[in-house]
Design a protein that fits this description.
Blueprint (H helix, E strand, L loop, with lengths): L1 E6 L13 H4 L2 H4 L2 E5 L8 H11 L6 E4 L10 H10 L3 E2 L3 E7 L2 E8 L5 E2 L2 E2 L6 H22 L5 E6 L22 H8 L5 E4 L8 E3 L5 E4 L2 H4 L4 E5 L12
Parallel strand pairs: 1-2, 2-3, 3-4, 6-9, 9-10, 10-12
Antiparallel strand pairs: 1-13, 5-6, 7-8, 11-12
Length: about 250
């Protein structure tokens, strides 16, 4: 069994320091790894990234993250990623990693993702160059995510994104903004591999649980949704949610 702690949208800055730390210090007792689904900072500055590294660093378990839209706000995303990597975190964007945990190999493929909408109500690569660029961005990210998932040799496979791969976990958000919260292309990428679990954030007012068309469990782990420092999920177990704990 592999125990995965997960949270997203922690939006760390100097005012948040110390808020998550007490629960995070208990991680080695309840989980084998921590995955953070983007929006690690509030405005995507190097200073905020250093706060994130302080709050979520040196936890006694591996920490794997993707960036979110907030982490791109100041156009310092490469520097933000470098600060986090220097602190020991694994930052994924269109690639993957394999961790040896409890005698099992956990594969994690990650990407920020992007918008575009879902089947029956999605943007298409037609018309103005701006629209083609918008859809093309999602297509390129989804293609990299799918390739990363398919390329990992592991016993259990997880997809980590910021944007949502299914509309079910957006329920509670205004329908009008669904195209800016995720894309069905991410779901297709997840279904292209034997993915056991997909984690995302971004939808603060969404629902926690969904499933891809191919049957992969999807969990929205945005902090405003789970309302705690992290949830814990189990892989190589009978029930992915059997490890859910109050933190």
């Amino acid at each position: 069994m592999i125990r995965i702690a997960a949270v997203g949208d922690v939006h760390v800055d100097k005012d948040v320091l110390g808020r998550y730390r007490p629960a995070l210090e208990r991680l080695p007792d309840v989980a084998d790894v921590l995955l953070v689904a983007g929006d690690l900072t509030r405005h995507g500055t190097v200073e905020e990234a250093k706060c994130m590294a302080t709050e979520f660093g040196e936890l006694g378990v591996p920490v794997v993250v993707v960036l979110g839209n907030h982490d791109h706000q100041s156009d310092q995303q490469e520097d933000v990623a470098r600060v986090l990597a220097d602190s020991g975190m694994t930052v994924l964007e269109g690639d993957g990693t394999v961790l040896e945990l409890n005698g099992h190999r956990l594969g994690i493929a990650g990407a920020k993702g992007f918008g575009g909408g879902f089947a029956g109500a999605c943007a298409s690569s037609f018309g103005e160059r701006e629209m083609k660029n918008f859809v093309g961005t999602t297509e390129a990210i989804a293609e990299k995510l799918g390739a990363a998932l398919r390329g990992l040799e592991c016993d259990a496979l997880v997809a980590l994104t910021h944007y949502a791969p299914v509309p079910e976990t957006l329920v509670g958000e205004p329908l009008e903004i669904y195209p800016f919260l995720g894309s069905y292309l991410l779901g297709q990428a997840i279904d292209s591999a034997p993915t056991a679990l997909a984690l995302h954030g971004h939808a603060h007012h969404g629902a926690e649980r969904g499933r891809t068309p191919g049957g992969v469990p999807v969990r929205n782990v945005a902090h405003p949704v789970i309302k705690q420092a992290y949830n814990v999920y189990q892989l190589l177990s009978d029930n992915v949610d059997a490890g859910l704990v109050a933190v």
